[in-house]
Amino acid sequence: MFFFLSKFLWYFINPLNLFFILFALGSFLLFSKFFRIGRILLVSLFLITSLISVCSLGDWVLWKLENRFVKPNQLPDRLDGIVVAGGILDPYLSSKRERPIIGGSIERLTVAAKIAQLYPEAKILFSGGSGDLIRTKFKEAHYVLPILSQLGVSPERVLIEDQARNTFENGLFSKQMAQPKKGEFWLLITSAFHMPRAMGTFRRAGWKIFAFPVDYGTSPIFQWTPTLNVGAGLMKFDKALHECLGLLVYWITEKSDFLFPGPDDKL
To answer: How far apart are CA 204 and CA 194, in angstroms?
Structure first.
């Protein structure tokens, strides 16, 4: 139920969808007896979207998320395994095109493959099922092996977890499959902005895993950079809001022990 509700409700609070709904409502009101409300609504939409975009609000939130966990300066002498969180491939298009279609965040796989070459005995676990409400039979994990093979990773080393539909299930099902033993050292690789929520869920699952953030979209030191690219600004705000709401909902529903998980939190 949680999965379906989260997907369904996001369609209505997604900033771009919400903007369209409110814009349509404001335009309709202009031709009714409530035209003054329509004017106020449209002017408010203009001011809010301008503020969000020009002031780079989305960039600032993403910067805060991305710098919550710091990439380790050096790796340990022994590494038992690497967990790669899904969100890289488009499983539906991959099925139709009969080849892996990369949607973004490919650095999760390239970095994992590079680290795997340094530790020939380490396992690689890819966790990614279907995050779609309708096309549930198309699983992201089913199309990842060809890419890892091209990156020099033997398929025999790869564990495929194809049931996880969201971040919480990534942690739950990955731990069930990997069965990590006490004292083992596993890395979690995902995009830096997504790392706080991912670490919160893995810890909630009882796994003391170590963060290795990748796929950065902001600089280490934030600088306000005004922009007139409204579309890009809204998309970044959309991405940041989605992650912040995810953190809040996961904390409220006890899928994460902390509202904003950090490196100093205790398991």
So the answer is: 16
